[in-house]
Specification:
Blueprint lengths: L1 E6 L28 E10 L11 E5 L5 E6 L14 E5 L16 E7 L5 E7 L7 E4 L6 E8 L2 E8 L2 E10 L5 E9 L5 E9 L2
Antiparallel strand pairs: 1-2, 2-3, 4-5, 6-7, 7-8, 8-9, 9-10, 10-11, 11-12, 12-13
């Protein structure tokens, strides 16, 4: 058997790999690849000259981390309400999307802090903005949360505990993008609802 591995940029990288065995050719390239998309193509021939037909694989080298900004709460804030908005902006200039956005399905939001009694709190949420419930871990007040994108400026959310909605709300982004209005309704154990409205200016 004979093997040859090449990349779409015209470089034959076979010489950078260890000698092939009877069953495989495997190893780490000695020369690192540049950022961006690459295509790996392989040609394998037997002694009779027959060539195996295999579709090339496309992959991307991305070593640049995404950009993350904690917009709310602000560093050093003193908050008098435990039901506070957490807003984190993120982008990935070297990611899949041309506009630098990130697929929400690939994002895990982790919140670390201290509660009113001085105890450390930690919660995690991963999901999509499709209106479906996705699990929340670490928060005793909720075990599931859903987000639904209404339009380019409006997002609705629901926080649940044991299947019951305890917090619902809506986030509306101003047309100029300089502020957001968050309307939150909290339902306590007796069914009493309390609604609050907060406006956050972009920092």
């Amino acid at each position: 058997m004979s093997d040859r591995i090449s990349l779409a940029d015209g470089n034959d990288v076979t010489s950078q790999l260890p000698p092939p065995t009877a069953a495989e050719l495997a190893g780490t390239l000695t020369q690192p690849l540049a950022e961006g998309e690459h295509t790996v193509a392989v040609k394998v021939f037997d002694r009779a000259g027959n060539q195996a037909v295999i579709r090339p694989h496309v992959f991307t080298v991305d070593t640049v981390p995404p950009v993350v900004v904690i917009e709310v709460p602000h560093d050093g804030d003193f908050l008098g309400d435990g039901q506070q908005l957490i807003r984190i902006a993120y982008s990935d200039p070297n990611g899949d999307a041309p506009d630098g956005t990130i697929d929400p399905a690939s994002v895990k939001v982790t919140v670390d802090g201290v509660d009113k009694d001085g105890k450390a709190v930690h919660s995690e949420w991963t999901g999509k903005f499709d209106g479906k419930d996705y699990p929340v871990t670490g928060n005793p007040n909720e075990d599931a949360r859903s987000y639904k994108k209404i339009d380019d400026h409006t997002l609705e959310f629901t926080s649940k505990k044991d299947g019951k909605a305890g917090v619902t709300g809506k986030v509306v982004l101003a047309a100029d993008g300089k502020s957001r209005t968050v309307t939150t309704t909290v339902t306590d154990s007796s069914g009493k609802k309390t609604t609050s409205v907060a406006v956050y200016d972009k920092q």
